[in-house]
Amino acid sequence: MRIGFAGLGRMGAPMARNIASSGVDLTVWNRTASKAQAFADEIGCAVADTPCDLANNSDVVISMLADDAASEAFHLGGQGVFASQVPSEVVVMGTMSPDHIAALVSAAPSGATVIDAPVSGATQAARDAQLLIMAGCTAQSGATVASLFDAMGKQTVFLGRPAAGAIMKLAVNALIHGLNQTVSEALSLTDKAGIAPDLAFDVIEASAAAAPMLSYRRPLYLDDGAHDVTFTVALARKDMEITAALARDFGVAFPQGGETLARLRDAEARGYGDRDMAAMRDYMRKESP
Q1: Per the confidence metrics, is the pTM higher than 0.90?
Q2: Angle (CA) 186 190 194, round 5°
Q3: What is the CATH number of the domain that holds 249?
Q4: Could you read off the pLDDT of 168-192 as tens digits, one per residue?
């Protein structure tokens, strides 16, 4: 099977490596061409000059892009995927709005199936092929790409219809960003009380509030500046803006999510946008009004 992969960022690069390791014929594309070439030199795959070229040389195109705007340019631009001899499956794995997924489904040329399949898991999970994949399709309609999901993840949940993956990912991220905010507040409280941060975290990890995210992100919560960024404050703000809009569309109350979004917006305005979202602890401790 010929696979085209676009988006070689913190998550995309390890996902593409795992796909390459599964033995497929891989071609990559990245908006920064030098990054695509360096990746190709590392693993020995081909590089496409444009999204259209990527699609012309692929049976399945997978994208791991940052937002709706990047995905729109990649799929619908003049040199986009849909301007090509279209592949049979177009798999969108970044965190996108449901409206964007619906627009891609509507714009897809005859013979192309669009599948939204966002993931849950940080960069380590991407490296270890331990991602949870939320696929907006049935197991039957996703059969062609199931082996690719298996190469990248530990589990795929088939949610039955287009855009269901996007909605589920936003719901999961609302939980994650809410927990991130709450942990940041809790640690601010214990900091002010003079409890050593590592001891406070020991208690949190052993408590009923423990969650896997807290354990693998512990080093970042204790000192985000000493570790590689895994998920920025700006991306968290983007996720929560999309989720808040979705809640409004559905007529769903979103009070805690609204407060999380307000804190993320303020932190970004104060210069935290490019820092890991664990820096919300530092923001709450130093700069929160």
Answers
A1: yes
A2: 165
A3: 1.10.1040.10
A4: 999 999 999 999 999 999 999 999 9
